[in-house]
TrEMBL record:
The protein, known as: CDP-diacylglycerol--serine O-phosphatidyltransferase
Location(s) in or outside the cell: Membrane
Matching Gene3D superfamilies: 1.20.120.1760
Membrane-crossing segments per the record: 121-142, 154-177, 183-207, 219-236, 242-261
Entry-linked PANTHER family: CDP-DIACYLGLYCEROL--GLYCEROL-3-PHOSPHATE 3-PHOSPHATIDYLTRANSFERASE-RELATED, CDP-DIACYLGLYCEROL--SERINE O-PHOSPHATIDYLTRANSFERASE
This protein's GO CC annotations: membrane
Annotated family: Belongs to the CDP-alcohol phosphatidyltransferase class-I family.
Pfam families in the record: CDP-OH_P_tran_2, CDP-OH_P_transf
Keywords of this entry: Lipid biosynthesis, Lipid metabolism, Membrane, Phospholipid biosynthesis, Phospholipid metabolism, Transferase, Transmembrane, Transmembrane helix
Organism name: Novosphingobium hassiacum
Main EC class the enzyme belongs to: transferase
Amino acid sequence: MTFAHEPETPRGRLPGGLTLRAMTPNAITVAALCSGLTGIRFAVTAASGTDPLVVAEDWRKAVIAVIIAGILDGLDGRIARLLKAQSRFGAELDSLADNVSFGVAPALILFLWSLQEAPRVGWFAALAVAIACALRLARFNARIDNDVQPHKSAGFLTGIPAPVGAGLAFLPLYLWIATDNPLFRLPVVVGPWLVLIAFLMISNIATLSWTSLRPRRSVRLELMGLVGLVIAALLTEPWLTLVGICVVYILLLPLGVLRYARVKRQRANARPVQLPSE
């Protein structure tokens, strides 16, 4: 029984006017943030550890935590659109969480893993990734209300996304875990690689997005089988599979540039020609 002085709370709505539907994607974003921060925690533990087996396991956990953050980051936006719970607050929270999980966390993890052997130069390489991620997200927020975005309107992205940049930045760490070769841990290898990834994150090159990938119907079954094989490979040989995914993505970068150049030419040819007035 509801008394007159106790207004009934609508179903699915918390006291104060916040609906559970609006909370769900933001809660996933916070979970992604916590996962990225947990990756930093594992890296700090690994850097101060003495048992080689425990240290190696902590480095694996640090990388996995950031990967989980990337998976959650891919879910929150889709769930928000599915529930029609998009908000400016959610977009700002997502950008702040991405900056920590895919900028600060990879920079600190890789610095503690490798770059602290050359602290002066190595720290600048780590900063390059963190700063590039922040600049990329700031550029995205600045354009979020801009209707004129040539890359986005054609189904492309500008530069590599922050989660992808974090995944690519870990490529030397993947190789080190998979092969146990100390060469991949050298600062002269990790540092230039991070600078390259930082440049790609803030660059203006057109990169492929999910909407720009439209496979033909004749090969869709084969692609579904390929996805299944990749998932199976991730379960059996995760680190070598991550190396392969990184290599494939890097090889696809020129394809994105070429396809967008073709779209630009088609748009230019489709523009009406203005005849001179008499």
